[in-house]
Protein: Tryptophan halogenase, putative
Amino acid sequence: MNHEKLKIVILGGGTAGWMTANLMAARWKDRNIHFTLIESPDVGIVGVGEGSTPSMQNFFHEIGVEESEWMPECNATYKNGITFEGWTSIPGFEKYCHPFPSQMDIHTFPKFDNNCQLRRHNFDVEAHPDRFFLGSYLSQNQRSPKANHNFPFDHPNGYHFDSNLLGSFLRKKAKQRGVEHLQRHVSGVIQKENGDISSLKFREGEIIEADFFVDCTGFAGLLLQKTLKVPFINLDKVLFNDTAVVVATPVNKDDLNSQTKSTALKYGWAWDIPLTNRTGNGYVFSSRYCSVNDAETEFRTHLGLLDADVNVRTVKWKQGRLEKSWSKNCLAIGLSQGFIEPIEAMALHLVYNSIGHFITEFESGNFSNQNQQQYNSINDRAFDGVVDYILAHYRMNSRRDTDYWRDNAENQNITPSFLAIVQSWLGASQNNLADEIKKYDTGSFFPLASWQILFAGYGVFPPPENVKPQNIGNQSVNMDELDNFIQRCGSNYSSHLESLNTLKQLAK
Ligand SMILES: Cc1cc2nc3c(=O)[nH]c(=O)nc-3n(C[C@H](O)[C@H](O)[C@H](O)COP(=O)(O)OP(=O)(O)OC[C@H]3O[C@@H](n4cnc5c(N)ncnc54)[C@H](O)[C@@H]3O)c2cc1C
Structure:
C-alpha cells in the first residue's frame, strides 16, 4: 500500500468518530493522509456518555486544546471520582468514593494498604477508603482538582460534559485540521475479493473509496459486525444491565458537585452528572428484571419527578464486544466495538486507548497481520479487564431486596481472573492480590488500589474462617494525623464553582 496516498474514512460522527478524527489528524499531521468523516443526516448520535476518566485530559493535551477553550463551550465540569451509594447493606459502608489517583497517594496509599491488611486479618482498624485519599476529600467537599499556585500538585481529573456540544466542538477542531466532513447516509458496502472493504455507497448513489475504514457507527455496527460478519461476544450472562432511562434536571449551581454520584436502586443504579447548566440523570437497569415503565416510575420517584412533565428517554444496548475489533482493512472504535455498561465511565477511555494502540501498531508495521493480531489481543485484554472490575460492583453487593441483586450476588458466570482476584482478597487462596492482578493482566485500567477501594468500600473482608493467624503486627495508622494531612492538602484546592468561573474568564 502506498502511504503517500493513504485515504482513511471514518464512518460515524459520534464522540468516538470525532475523537478518532482529531487524534489521527493530530498524530499524523506530517503524513500525507486524507481523512474523511461521514455521518448520517438521519441517524442521530447516542447522545449519552457525559462522564470521563482522566484519559480525556491526555486526549485534549494531545490535540492541543486547553480546558478554557473546550470546557465552557461544552458546559463541562470537573470530576474527581465517583461516589457509590447504597450498593451494600453492611453498616458503616452505605457509601464510598472511588477517586482518581493522585501524586498525594504516595503518602496515603501505603496507610490504606496497611490498614486493609490489618482489617483482612481481623484487626479492628479503619479501612473504609474515604479517609485515605485526597480525591475523595475533593469530591466530597465540592473542590476543584486545580491547586492554588503555592501548591504545585494538580489532581488528575475526569470531566462531565454535554456530549452533543462536545461532538460539535470536536467537529470544529477536526475540520480545522483538514478533516473532510460529509453528511451522507451509507446504504451499501462494497468489498474486494479478499474481503477488504473497497468503498461505501451513499443512499444518493454516490460512492467513496478508501484504503482503510474506521467503523464508528455506534450500535449499528455497520462495517465489522454487519458487513465483515465479525462475531459478537455476548456478555449478558455476566453483566445484566441492558437499558437506561435518561432525563435532565436543573443543577444546583451554588453547590456544584465535582464527582459523579452513582446510587443503587432496585434493579440497577442511577447516575447523577452535574454540568454547568443541568444535571444529567440516568437509571441503568436490567430489562430481564424490570420493565421500562416500572423503571421510569422508580426513577421518577428517586428524582422527585413522579408527576413532572419531563421527557424521559430510553436507551438500549447489547452487553459485549466484537471477537476482534480490527479485521481486514477496518477498525471498530466506540460502541461499534462493544459496550459493557456506563458504570465507571470507561467507554471513552477505551476509545482513546484503542486509537492510541492502533496508531502505534500502524506506525510499526502498517497493516501487517502480526500488528493486527497484536492490536486485537491488547485491546481484548483491556476490555475484559474492565469487565472484571465492573462485574465486581454487582457480584460483591450485599443487597438482598430484589431478585436482581440476589442473582447478581450469586452469579456463577464469572471469569477465572475475577475469581482469582476475589479469592485472594477473601483469603480463600494463598495468592497475593497484587500478583493476581498482574498475572491476569487486569490492572491496566484498574490497578491494585482500585480493587482494594472497591472491596473495602463495600465492607467486604475475609470471613473469620479464612483469617489465618499471621504475625503482621498491629501498626495501625493514626487517623487523626491522616485527616489533618488530607485536609491541609485539600485546603489548597479552590471551590469547584470558582475554578469553573476562572475558566470562563480565560475563555473570553
Ligand atoms: C446509557 C449510556 C451511558 C453512557 N455513559 C457513558 C459515560 O458516562 N462515559 C463514557 O465514557 N461513555 C459512556 N457511554 C458510552 C458513550 O455514550 C459512547 O462511547 C460514546 O457516545 C461514543 O458513541 P459512538 O460515537 O460510538 O456512537 P454514536 O454516538 O451512536 O454515533 C454513531 C454515528 O454513526 C453514524 N451512523 C450510523 N449509521 C450510519 C449510516 N448508515 N451511515 C452514516 N452514518 C451512520 C451516526 O450518524 C452517528 O454519527 C454511555 C453509553 C450509554 C448507552
About this structure: Residues 144 and 188 are 48 Å apart (CA to CA).
